[in-house]
Amino acid sequence: MARQQLQQQRQAAAQRLRRCRPAAQSGVSVEAPPSTPVVPRGGRGPASDSSAPLSVSKVLFSDITLPLYDPQEQRTFDLVVVGSGPSGLAVADRVAAAGFQVLIVDPNPRAPWINNFGVWIDEFAAMGLEDCLDYTWDKALVHLDSSAEGARYLSRPYGRVDRPKLKRRLLERCIASGVMFHQAKAQDVKHGGGRSEVQCDGGVGVSGSLVVDATGHSRKLVEFDKAFNPGYQGAYGITVMCAEPHPFDVATMLFMDWRDDHLDAHPDVKERNARLPTFLYAMPFSSTKVFLEETSLVARPIIPFPELKLRLEKRMQHLGIKAVTVEDEEFCAIPMGGCLPVRPQRVIGVGGTAGMVHPSTGYMVSRVIGAAPLIADAIIDQLSAVSDKATDAHLARAPRSEAEADAMAAAVWRAMWPVQRLRQREFFEFGMEVLLKLDLAETREFFAAFFSLSDYHWHGFLSSRLSFLNLIGFGLSLFARSSNAARLNLLQKGLPGLLVMLSRLATLK
Ligand SMILES: Cc1cc2nc3c(=O)[nH]c(=O)nc-3n(C[C@H](O)[C@H](O)[C@H](O)COP(=O)(O)OP(=O)(O)OC[C@H]3O[C@@H](n4cnc5c(N)ncnc54)[C@H](O)[C@@H]3O)c2cc1C
Fold first, then answer.
1. Is 242 found in the same domain as 350?
2. Ligand 1 pocket check for 349: Cβ under 6 Å
3. Which pLDDT score, from 0 to 100, does residue 45 have?
4. To test ligand 1's pocket by mutation, which of 103, 334, 348 has the most ligand atoms within 8 angstroms of CB?
5. In terms of domains, do 109 and 219 share one?
6. Do residue 246 and residue 108 come from a single domain?
7. Using CA positions, which residue lies closest to atom 30 of ligand 1?
8. How confident is the prediction for the chain on average, in pLDDT?
9. 115 CB less than 6 Å from ligand 1?
10. Residue 385: DSSP 8-state
11. Atom of ligand 1 nearest to the CA of 114
């Protein structure tokens, strides 16, 4: 491409980026889990007539024509992104919008996203995506226990992501930016001569100067050098149409319901719940339609789905919710915490692949989209740096040796994981290890203190916005607001993890 043309393309892209640049959500949190055990990932089940299981072959957006890459061309792209989830699409779009040649590899880029994503509206608004929510609630509610004092209203608006709309938005942006698609599953990657070749189904290889692994919890291409031992957020959810109005206020999202009186008649289940607690998460869409999810915040090993389903059924009976139809069924198993991929390495990991899930909450979608600009800009910097050195506009983008390509990838990893982010992640891991040890009574005490914190602290913690120093302040405030018994308990249960965190912090660079 002629330099002038490239220049124009970059200027147009820069204007577009200014319009949609997300708010200051920097860095990436990366973690990665290996062999997720027997757990199915999100899906729609056989609960009702119309809910035939979704397969990856299901296609949304039949009106969208993907620009497909013909492997016969044997091009080398500037960037190959493997995976077209939120993180892959967001990174690919931004790099392509800056004028680089980007290829996405995914077996079905138009497949629907099947999980219900809930987000804080302020996070989505900061990224200019508030129109990609299909339901919103002005406030959220937490029930710590069955007492009236146990009800806490959170004045932070919440929303459900309109998945088809968000996916369409990200896909259309990619297409407008010039991203090409190759519909296949990536199997492996090989590096040589300053290029990386992603091996796909059907014996096709696609080449790029840099490769991003955005395969979610499949973690297909990034490498790990340690055994992975994450916690798991497990949840069983259904969207139900009820015969009669359900008991929830349609203006309020039920963020956490830790009440357990629905298990009074089932002492064995109640006892299990007292040891390994789960809570109800509910999104009331109308007076008769609601998404209900029995959720284990984090457990190791994961609480099995039949147990979650049983607990949800008991809740529904207790609340008098009679489902006429079940519109969909969700099985959620999100690995949380655990080791990060090897840093640096040639393949760049983003999103679920690379531990961007909040290790203490399971939240991710705002974070992966919010972090995309930082990652993309680091990639753009590297691709541009090579081009600055060269005389030929096309050759310019290709690293000319393995050492150069390794150094480019390493620079992107460094930008994603500055030491402040690593410290933050250590703190989140520490938080997760504490949560893993709490029974129901202790969990209630913990959240009583948590939701009495300032908005700055609890909003910031849930949105991964607090720096390490702020997190220390957060921890001290939490401690100060806890009862004496809870403090003692936190000290007993948190001390080993605290020591681990301190020793790891000492070696961070
Ligand atoms: C049930 C469930 C509920 C959730 N709820 C929430 C929530 O309420 N709020 C929230 O913030 N987050 C939630 N999450 C997390 C949410 O899924 C992530 O935010 C998001 O999907 C991660 O994005 P990603 O792009 O990293 O990976 P994914 O969305 O998992 O995308 C990975 C992509 O890679 C592709 N892929 C996989 N393997 C290959 C391969 N070998 N070759 C090529 N392509 C491949 C897949 O087809 C897919 O398109 C939930 C997750 C689950 C499972």
1. no
2. no
3. 28
4. 334
5. yes
6. no
7. 216
8. 86
9. yes
10. H
11. 1
Say if 137 falls within a structural domain: no
Residue 78 lies in a domain: yes
Q: Which residues pair with 299 in a beta bridge?
A: 232
Whose alpha carbon is nearest atom 8 of ligand 1? Answer: 117
Of 382, 400, 417, which marks where a domain is finished?
Answer: 417
Looking from the CA of 427 toward its CB, the CA atoms found within 13 Å total 21
State both tokens at 47: 């609960």
- Residues 305 and 386 grouped into a single domain: no
458 found inside a domain: yes
Residue 156 beta carbon below 6 angstroms from any ligand 1 atom: no
Distance 219 CA to ligand 1 centre (A): 11
The residues near 351 (Cβ < 8 Å, ≥ 6 apart) are: 83, 85, 86, 87, 88, 214, 216, 364, 368
* Model confidence pLDDT, tens digit, residues 362-389: 778 999 999 999 999 999 999 987 655 5
- What's the confidence (pLDDT) of residue 49? 26
Residue 78: which CATH number?
3.50.50.60
Looking at residue 364, its pLDDT comes to 85
Cα 304 versus chain centre, distance: 21
446 shares a domain with 344 = no
Q: Whose CA is nearest to atom 15 of ligand 1?
A: 364
Number of separate domains in the chain:
3
3-state secondary structure 204-228: CEEEEEEEEECCHHHCCCCCCCCCC
Last residue of a domain, one of 334, 353, 368: 334
CA 106 / ligand 1 centre spacing (Å): 12
Please report the pLDDT score of residue 387 as a whole number.
Answer: 57
Helix (H) or strand (E) segment spanning residue 382: helix 365-389
Q: Could you list the residue range(s) of the whole structural domain that residue 327 is in?
A: 231-334
**pLDDT tens, position by position, 101-157:** 999 999 999 999 988 899 999 999 999 999 999 999 999 999 999 999 999 999 999
